[in-house]
Amino acid sequence: MGGARPRASIRRHIVAVALLAVAAASGIAWAVARNEPPPESLGALLDRVVEEGAPGALVVVRDRDATRAEARGLADRTPPLPMRPDARFRAGSITKTFVAALVLDLVQDGKLHLDDPVGRWLPGLVPHGNAITVRQLLRHTSGLPDYVDDPRVLRAPARRWRPDELVALATAQAPAGAPGERFAYASTNYVVLGLVAERAGGSPLATLLARRIFAPLGLRHTGYVPGAIRGRSVHGYRAPSHQGVVTGEPVETATAAWWAGAAGAVVSTAEDLQRFYAALLRGRVAGPRLLREMETLVPAGRNRYGLGIAVFPTPCGPAWGHTGNVQGTVAVAWNTRDASRQVVLAVNTYPLSPELEAAVRRLQIAAFCGTA
Known about the structure:
By secondary structure, the chain is of the alpha+beta class. It has one domain (8-369): Beta-lactamase (3-Layer(aba) Sandwich). It is 32% helix and 19% strand. It has a nine-stranded antiparallel sheet with strand order 3-2-1-16-15-14-13-12-11, with helices on both faces. Strand 1 (56-63) and strand 2 form a beta hairpin. The chain is globular.
């Protein structure tokens, strides 16, 4: 989601750095941890996000055993459905951490190796496939361009795009660099990883994620859903814009996200996201050795990036996790390195006006740093 010079795709996806998304399931005990802002402070910040144009927003803050969850506005405007902190929402590029965890689980089982060339698993799929490794795909240092930069993708977001079609759109563009040369964020890397995982794991990506990640961690409300979402969920709204400036009221988007695929099609809740990152960062998903591999970082613009996990600078120290932006929903999952403090935030509109982006940023930093 960045390189030597930020690209358009970086701005679309990691601009979500300004945002925090969070929902917690019903039944969570509400408490206020030491040094955390009083409940009215986060509530007021959520109110400001809705006042500045978001249909709704939710945030869940967990500080060790103390959890606060709040929501404002609407998850769906027609018919009106209040936003709730236990709502399911599209996690966008947070999906990349899930896919990275799956790949590392396959590595741990000996079904795959980080330094395997892509050409071994998918001959002829991408140029220089024998020089691009699984590790480079995970870290966005493969040099593959981003299929999201092809305008045809977002003109037809509900189309049932196949992974090989998306890869073909990407490889028709100029490369972002030589394999291993530098960080250049591209969702193409994770679409390719999804295909590699299917070949190495011998099952569809949805089955592998459910069997190896979701079920073992007890993520009951999380699924890989490139098609339409069934049941109650947060609906995304996309604001019309011109040259990056919001020009009108947000309009509801389709709930299907076939174009996101292995790069962004996970649906989850705040509680599940926090459970996942806590297990991951404590070495309970891929083990301590592979966690060290995951946490080996390269520069990524103002941030740093490992194997499917990003590190963002904040006033109170680094935040580990990922951000997401898909079908009019922006999500953020931030954690301290030991996952003792976690924040998830979701806002169901995109792009953001400067005023809305500033309101979300204030909420995000206050929630993570425990300051009003």
